[in-house]
Design goal:
heterodimer; A: about 260 residues; alpha/beta; Rossmann fold; 6-stranded mixed beta sheet; 4-stranded antiparallel beta sheet; 12 strands; about 30% helix; about 25% strand; globular; B: about 350 residues; mainly alpha; ABC transporter involved in vitamin B12 uptake, BtuC; two-stranded antiparallel sheet; 13 helices; about 70% helix
Chain lengths: ~260, ~350
């Protein structure tokens, strides 16, 4: 029997963020192997939605389930084996080496040191950072640090578990160059093919259109559209959400719409 | 990356520590073989030497080991918890609270309270523990709301409570007569002169508690260095860990202030040196800091006992005099090594 429980399920979620902004009535679900991209203008509540999903904000009403169980009912140590989150930016002021930073992702697991070392190496290879293994994290550039942090969350959910895994990324491509934005798409596909559900905030609409199965467009805390990129992306929607006049073309190889501004 | 092999560093320290204790026992106004502890001497002079070892030098050496390692471990924990390599137990008001409590009892309690002791601890010491606990409790309350404890607010309220405690301390000093002043200043400088087996036993209980509780949080502390949310994402029960670590370190530092007074800079410099040598991983940093803290305080107290013999310097003054410049040079070097863009 195929397990049809959504990995992550939000039902009419209402969350207060600040006096001026709250997320209202957000319903959204994502199944194993699906990739969802959250897009929207600055201040729309994208990062807050991710924090709400991680149960870091006070939920006012609605349901939030991970693997069919209420998110608040999960023991943190159990949840960490299945759910990895990459924040927009993290500050690390201590002289860890790159491989040590990535191995922090193995804290939730009780795997052996040798096994962890193998996973750390594979995760570093995935983000194209194998050459930095023994460097000090603090000596890397912003984009390189971002890639190492990506390897850390990858190492956290590297192995299959009995329940569905989920990866949450907040603007993973923010400080990356073109080649490494391509790497993000590759990494997302790598995990999606293993049945990991992925929720990511992306600024680059083309990258979102290219790698997401599902788009969620946020504006002022509400979902103004959601669905497959071909269904959702339109010149009208982009003008409504971002106040920008854009042209759409579907001339790309994969048939996903491309936005030209 | 120039780091030393952590196993090798820890092994070296494990062998260095007992050797140093032996030297510490031997050195003093009269040179005594530490082996005398294990024999039953016949001659009168040897018996006298044995008594010196047993009731003066040995408790003092054990005290230096216990206090040095406790302070260094507490420093490592605080620096991890606050994600700040410059944090130190005094930041959350422990030391200033203890000083204010002690001064209060010295100045106002002398007429009321008898000079008697409980378990070898004077009423002054009890005042100090009360002051330390009260200060940490206030700092913790100020920084905690229903969303949890904010580390930044804790640092800030630590500074504020520390300032209030110092002001109170000054106020009490203002009312003190010259005998009280002398007692206050001797007490505040921190020294191991009065180490008795009673006090060693009290410190040993606290040090054991510390060395039993802290190591189970070594991975949590590693995760903390990434940030509190990140630690939570890695499955760490952040609020619980913070509460327990703060309570245990406050108790350990508070009691160490009571038994030997303020020993400056050990909690700050030792974790810093060890981190520079073997990296910030708490799995080796905590045992490394415990061993190196013991070594450092033994060395400092040995110098304090012998530099101007037959008189003595307070060990706390010595650790500050040596610690501060060492710390400063480390800071400049590590800045240049780790963060070229910040220079």
């Amino acid at each position: 029997m195929i397990d049809t429980t959504p990995t992550l399920q939000l039902e009419e979620l209402d969350v207060r963020i600040s006096q001026d902004l709250s997320l209202s009535n957000i319903s959204f679900q994502i199944h194993a192997g699906e990739v969802a991209a959250i897009i929207g203008p600055n201040g729309a509540g994208k990062t807050s939605l991710l924090r709400a999903i991680c149960n870091e904000l006070d939920r006012q009403s609605g349901a939030l389930k991970f693997n069919g169980r209420d998110m608040a009912a999960w023991k943190l140590s159990e949840r960490a084996k299945l759910l990895a989150i990459l924040p927009q930016r993290s500050v690390l002021d201590f002289p860890f080496s790159v491989s040590e930073v990535v191995s922090l992702g193995r804290i939730p697991h009780s795997s052996s040191q040798q096994q962890n070392a193998i996973i750390v190496e594979q995760a570093l290879e995935l983000v194209d950072c194998l050459q930095f293994t023994d460097r000090l994290f603090l000596s890397l550039s912003g984009g390189e640090k971002q890639r190492v942090q990506l390897a850390r969350v990858a190492a956290q959910i590297w192995e299959r578990q009995s329940l569905h895994r989920c990866l949450i990324l907040d603007e993973p491509s923010a400080s990356l160059d073109l080649a490494h934005q391509e790497m993000i798409a590759k990494m997302i596909r790598f995990f999606a093919e293993q049945g990991v559900a992925i929720v990511t905030v992306l600024h680059d609409l083309n990258l979102a259109s290219q790698c997401a199965d599902k788009l969620l467009v946020l504006k002022d805390g509400s979902a103004i559209a959601q669905g497959r990129p071909v269904e959702v992306l339109s010149e009208n929607l982009i003008s409504e959400a971002f106040n920008v006049h854009a042209q759409l073309t579907t001339a790309s190889k994969d048939g996903a719409p491309r936005i030209i501004t | 990356m120039d780091r030393l092999n952590s196993t090798r560093v820890l092994t070296t320290l494990v062998f260095l520590l007992p050797a140093l204790v032996a030297i510490y026992l031997a050195v003093g106004p009269s040179l005594i073989s530490p082996l005398l502890l294990f024999s039953s001497p016949e001659s009168e002079s040897l018996i006298r030497d044995q008594v010196i070892l047993q009731s003066i030098r040995l408790p003092r050496a054990v005290m230096a080991v216990l206090v040095g390692s406790s302070l260094a471990v507490c420093g490592a924990v605080m620096q991890g918890l606050f994600r700040n390599p410059l944090a130190d137990p005094s930041l959350i008001g422990v030391s200033s609270g203890a000083s204010a409590g002690a001064s209060f009892v010295i100045v106002f309690g002398a007429s009321v309270l008898p000079g008697s002791e409980i378990l070898g601890l004077s009423f002054v010491s009890i005042g100090a523990v009360a002051g330390a606990v009260l200060a940490v409790f206030l700092v913790y309350r100020l920084a905690t709301d229903r969303y949890g404890t904010s580390v930044i607010t804790m640092l800030l309220s630590g500074v504020a409570i520390g300032a209030v405690a110092s002001a109170l301390n000054n106020l009490f000093t203002y009312f003190a007569d010259s005998v009280m002043l002398r007692r206050i200043s001797v007490w505040e400088m921190g020294n191991l002169e009065g180490a008795s087996w009673n006090r060693v036993a009290i410190m040993a209980v606290v040090a054991m508690l510390l060395l039993w509780r802290i190591p189970r949080y070594r991975l949590a502390l590693n995760a903390f260095l990434l940030g509190e949310s990140e630690a939570r994402y890695l499955g760490i029960n952040v609020e619980w860990v913070k509460k327990e670590l703060i309570m245990v370190t406050a108790l350990a530092v508070g009691v160490s202030v009571v038994v030997v007074g303020n020993i400056a800079f050990v909690g700050l410099v030792v974790p810093h040196i060890i981190r520079g040598a073997i990296g910030p991983d708490h799995r080796s940093l905590i045992p490394g800091a415990a061993l190196a803290g013991a070594v450092l305080l033994l060395l400092a107290d040995m110098a304090a006992r012998t530099l101007i013999a037959p008189a003595e310097l307070p060990a706390g003054v010595l650790t500050a005099l040596v610690g501060a410049p060492v710390f400063f040079s480390l800071l400049i070097r590590s800045k240049a090594l780790n963060n070229p863009e910040r220079l």
